[in-house]
Amino acid sequence: MGIGKKYKFSEYWLFLLIIVQPLLDVLAFWTSSEAGTAAGYIRLLVMVALPVYLLIREDNKKPLVIGLGIIAAIALLHVGNLFRVGYVNFFGDVKNMAKIFYLPVMSVCLCVYVRDENKRKQIVSGLAVNVAIIAAIIVISYLTGTYTPTYGKIGGKGPILGISAWVIFSNRNAHSIILCFLSIFATYLGISAKKPYIRYFMPALVFLGCATNGTTSAYLTLLACMAGYAIFLVFSHIVRKERMQRATVLLLIYLIALFTAAVVFYPESPQAKITAIEKAAADKRQKSLEDELMAMGYDIKNMSPEEKKADPVVLEKMADFYRRNILGGAPGLLENFDIYRIMDAYDMSTDAMEIIDVRKMKRVNAHLIWEDSDLATKLLGFEFEKVDWPEETLDLENDWHSIFYYYGVLGFGAYALYMLYFIFLVLRKLRQDFKGSMTVYNFCLIMGFFVLIGLAHFSGALLKRPNSAIYLAMLLALLNYQTCYAPNKPGEDMIL
Asked: What's the pLDDT at 161?
């Protein structure tokens, strides 16, 4: 992209699409309403327009048609089955489908489109710009006191902890996932930089961003970045049988120091504080039940699930314990199912920390709905309305669970196979040229992929949140290009 060169939108729309992503999140923050956000409608328009554009412009349409055809088939089978059993809210289910299918649609499109160095560099350059944009937004929102806290509702009770910048409150976890991926990418930019001040500044920036955000995802990513890149520095030199330069040794020590600081700082982090508050409350409730039953001659900690169910006194005390704890987190679960069936789903546990976990309540609710479904619905998924209604939403907060329950065994299997395909591509490339693949860039892509897929298991803010899903779509496109189209250039992008 030289100075004075004329650029056509048709050639550089991908770069613009990437750098506008954090700005859309800011737009959503300032325009949010019950009807949705302007940013959401823009993303939906892109999801519809991009496949049409590529079907018209691309010469190699076959992989695009196959990929989109599989997605369409799963969607039609899901909708057809729900018409069979009787739809409650067709439009609500389609709206949820658009969110979950955003990632496969966008990733298929980008994988087909990104097949040369210019397009790859557009993604890399766009992500670098996004690191700067999001860092600036976090700083400005903090200095102006307009940021959304990671924990605690504005004006509500409880501690206000963590910084999530300009994002709507319900979108904090998606912001955290975006921060995680960009942290992995920012660390790569730092390590591969030729200028020493950038090399040391970027990991420090990642430390501050993840530590102040404070979610479990952000903290695990922080530890993974510092430890992962440090280990890679050592491993890659061993594979290439090269002696470390002094600059590499200093960088290695710096990363280890940041990792150590992260471990030391953790007790003071937002995540540790909120976890401590929740655990203290849970321990108090659990001890109260145990003490009450102990006074009646029951050692509930050493009773088996069968023994608890067999004793009517213990059973009723536990049922009351479950009702009180679930009522504060997901009362809809109590409305949908008998308390004793819910207790069975928890295997008669008295672990209050487990019982008060709202995410677990929602998974239990979805599992019991799935158990009551017929075979076709188990294969194709149940309607979103089953977990979502005006009074309360029991929408799952774990992505992989969401796909399994909302789109059944077939939908989950297709999604899982799609991800396994990229693992196959990586393993094939490593088998072809293991030594030549030992670059910081390749490691960044591989670590980013596995971290995001892992976080999707614990979070509900990646695979069904378009604003964060687009980053995984970009990553998959980069992986696809690097393993299928990138020219072999031994030594390119090697570390220090």
From this structure: 81
Selected residue with higher pLDDT from 30 and 139: 139
Amino acid at 331: P
pLDDT given at position 28: 87
Contact 98, 47 (CB under 8 A): yes
DSSP secondary structure of 29-84: HHH-BTTB-HHHHHHHHHHHHHHHHHHHH-S--HHHHHHHHHHHHHHHHHHHHHHH
pTM here?
0.92
Distance of CA 448 to the CA centre of its chain: 11
Helix (H) or strand (E) holding 171: none
Exposure class string for 200-211: b at 16+ Cβ within 10 A, else e: bebbebbbebbb
User: Which candidate, 183, 259, 184, 178, places its Cα nearest to that of 223?
Assistant: 259
Q: Within 10 A of 242 (CB to CB), how many other CB atoms are there?
A: 12
Residues 385, 411: Cα–Cα separation, whole Å: 18
Task: Tell me the pLDDT band of 159, cut-offs 50, 70 and 90.
Answer: low
Using alpha carbons, select from 450, 364, 477 the residue that is nearest to residue 184.
450
Q: Of all residues in the chain, what percent are helix, strand and coil, respectively (each to 5)?
A: 75, 0, 25
274 CB-near residues (< 8 Å, 6+ apart): 151, 159, 161, 214
- In degrees to the nearest 10, what's the CA dihedral of 156, 162, 167, 173? -100
385 with 332: CB under 8 angstroms?
Answer: no
The 10s digit of each residue's pLDDT in 332-362 is 999 999 999 999 999 999 999 999 999 999 9
**Cβ neighbour number for residue 229 with a 10 Å cutoff:** 24
Nearest to 358 by CA among 333, 338, 387: 333
Tokens of 210: 């993840």
More confident residue, 5 or 480: 480
**Phi/psi-derived region of residue 159, left when phi > 0, alpha when psi is between -120 and 50, beta in every other case:** beta
Spatial neighbors of 241 by CB under 8 A, at least 6 apart, are: none
Which residues are paired to 151 by β-bridges? Answer: 161
Per-residue pLDDT at 60:
85
What is the DSSP secondary structure assignment for residue 372, as one 8-state letter? T
| Whole-number Å distance between alpha carbons of 214 and 206 | 12
pLDDT in tens, 423-471: 999 999 999 999 989 999 999 999 999 999 999 998 889 999 999 999 9
CA distances 339 to 186, 317, 333, 370, 388, Å, are 48, 12, 9, 17, 20
pLDDT in tens, 174-220: 999 999 999 999 999 999 998 999 999 999 999 999 999 989 999 99
